[in-house]
Amino acid sequence: xxxxxxxxxxxxxxxxxxxxxxxxxxxxxxxxxxxxxxxxxxxxxxxxxxxxxxxxxxxxxxxxxxxxxxxxxxxxxxxxxxxxxxxxxxxxxxxxxxxxxxxxxxxxxxxxxxxxxxxxxxxxxxxxxxxxxxxxxxxxxxxxxxxxxxxxxxxxxxxxxxxxxxxxxxxxxxxxxxxxxxxxxxxxxxxxxxxxxxxxxxxxxxxxxxxxxxxxxxxxxxxxxxxxxxxxxxxxxxxxxxxxxxxxxxxxxxxxxxxxxxxxxxxxxxxxxxxxxxxxxxxxxxxxxxxxxxxxxxxxxxxxxxxxxxxxxxxxxxxxxxxxxxxxxxxxxxxxxxxxxxxxxxxxxxxxxxxxxxxxxxxxxxxxxxxxxxxxxxxxxxxxxxxxxxxxxxxxxxxxxxxxxxxxxxxxxxxxxxxxxxxxxxxxxxxxxxxxxxxxxxxxxxxxxxxxxxx
Length: 455
Fold this sequence. Notes:
CATH class of the largest domain: Alpha Beta
Structural class: alpha/beta
Number of strands: 15
Radius of gyration: 22 Å
CATH architecture of the largest domain: 3-Layer(aba) Sandwich
CATH superfamily of the largest domain: Periplasmic binding protein-like II
Largest sheet: 5 strands, mixed
Strand order of the largest sheet: 2-1-3-14-6
Shape: globular
Distance between the termini: 28 Å
CATH topology of the largest domain: D-Maltodextrin-Binding Protein, domain 2
Helix content: 40-55%
Number of domains: 2
């Protein structure tokens, strides 16, 4: 299978991170975890009030923020204009796993981590349990829960603690080439059976057309979530893994049928070949987070008017989806100015000025106020033929299953997903076999690290 580009880099750095992160993970799990321990951590404060955070803003100081998103510089500038005594240094040390490796190296070394870091939701448990992040409950941020979607809040909260404030979200939607569908008289699928039938019709019409691409890559596991899968049950140090639960099995059987039809291309998402295939109409749909429509608009100008956005198909037509991507902003345990960091973090994720700058840059929000804003919902996208794309994405945001947990070693889990489940695609074998192999590896690895893992 052609897994390359962004996916390959993510595996490489994540594998390195997985080797080092567990030195501190079980120490955190051994006693009371999360909020109960944070008051004694370096740099932590207890019971910080809004007045104390305001005083910290007026006093000022220097903060370092590690992030890879394009709108961060604009937000930092706006904040410094509002609070001139505070200097925010924005540093991009790499995307996702590249950043996580550097954070973990700094945590192991005892210095060098930023004050604030962008952390994707799947990585939060690993850093929270290794005591790399502060529990934000000490700043009263547990009271901000209603400002964010249920799914993003759930992924930012571990063992009763709050380890990040959500910034963006990625409810999965289906982007489809409407022109291609119309040419071949294919109806927009609302169920997975209809999706398979559409794939078959397109393949018969032109053998060069694929319904989608890449299995074992970035979106495969979020799709398991979207099928209602919930393979990981975590309770403290005890973990149960069942990668063949009903939802996961439904995903595997659906992809078995698509692969049998030769409807899944092995082109890697984000590769040059992928963009070419999208532009020449040889990939019919992209199943991705609600942030993808904005990327298409900026990256495929010659395809303006061809594409539309629809809800992700489901097993029975009842709305259900998962999250693909999205990040929280967190405070690392090495910050020397936790109160100032907390004040900036609150502004960054909840102040409307900051959120508006994020939205203007094409981000998809995790804030309930913006998802409920009629102007945002009614925006017409010229690229999508005037479609009100945000309405579809908002509906998806309200349909994300909250019955999902990430492993406390999820970064490692991602590194071997393509080497187990992805091999089912390479070998054209049953995806259930790939899921079973993934489970065996996860159980073995977890027990080796000192967790109690059952299947």
